[in-house]
Amino acid sequence: MKLFLLILMIIILLPIPLKISIYYSFDNYYIKLYKFTIISKEKIKNKKQNSNIKSKSHKKKKDPLNILDMIHKKYLIEKLYDSKFKPKINLKGDLNYSLNDAAHTAIFYGILSQINPIFYFALSILCKINKFKFNINPIFKDKFLVKFEISSIIFISIVNVIYILILIFKSILYSEEVDPYIGNNYDK
């Protein structure tokens, strides 16, 4: 029994690394979790071919409950930003691009360089960032080219997941109107 409790505590408290890779170019794209391909161009082609072969039944689906409308976004972002129990992340990314003109490529490089710190800040709301490296490489050729690759490792534990779910549940509760004389009135 003590061994079971010890193993359970280790599973709950120790972070589990999740390796996610995202790749996009005009020729190919995929999303991988560890070495398993979740989404790829070949899988989508195979699904389309299989769906064309099978007959489709037209059943009316019920509208799902839209939780995103129920969440109070300002409250959730504020609580996530101040949280100490965020998952840790290591992120490495590359963006190679070329526009048809070298001048347009150079101007767009300046714009993309300014997006990098905004992306870092948006990611720091959700996660604690251990390593962040995002290279933007302009290629000065007379062809249109985009190659985007991100590889990240997210260290997440069950405690992090439970804490974030509690914050989401609290933001749903705060989404209802609050009397300004009694409690905090967060703007929607």
Automatic annotation (TrEMBL):
Pfam families: DUF2953
Superkingdom of origin organism: Bacteria
The protein's name in its UniProt record: DUF2953 domain-containing protein
